[in-house]
What we know:
The chain has helices at residues 44-51, 83-93, 122-133, and strands at 10-12, 24-28, 34-38, 55-57, 69-78, 98-107, 110-119, 138-143. By secondary structure, it is α+β, with helices and mostly antiparallel strands.
Amino acid sequence: IDRNLKGIDFQLAKCCHPIYGDHVFGFVTNGGGIKIHRTDCPNAPELRRRFGYRIVNARWAGSSTGGEYTTTIRIIGRDDIGIVTNITSVISKETGVNMRSISVDSNAGLFEGTITLVVHQASQLEALFKKLKTIKGVKQIFRV
């Protein structure tokens, strides 16, 4: 998968938002194009089970220079004073990661936050996850 790929119509799947560096596969659509999914996409087991004949191998080519990928993460943890400030501070200090939106809900001493980010490759997201996990009160972080 490369932005300069010619002759093949492909799109990144909106269900799992693959990022450069993720393990991916292609799914041939009815229109003949290919949707690129993460191998851990929530829809992957069903696609493989029902439409295994339409699955094609795919991998990222070249480098991610210039490519921007939008992804959403969910953070769950203890609702302490300043926890959101700590989370946004860590994200804002991360080079090449931009925050597009944030939504936080709190209930019974726990918070759940959904954050939309723009990154250039999966390794940036992995590094960010490691830093976010060190914040006191953060219990879980995962991609949506």
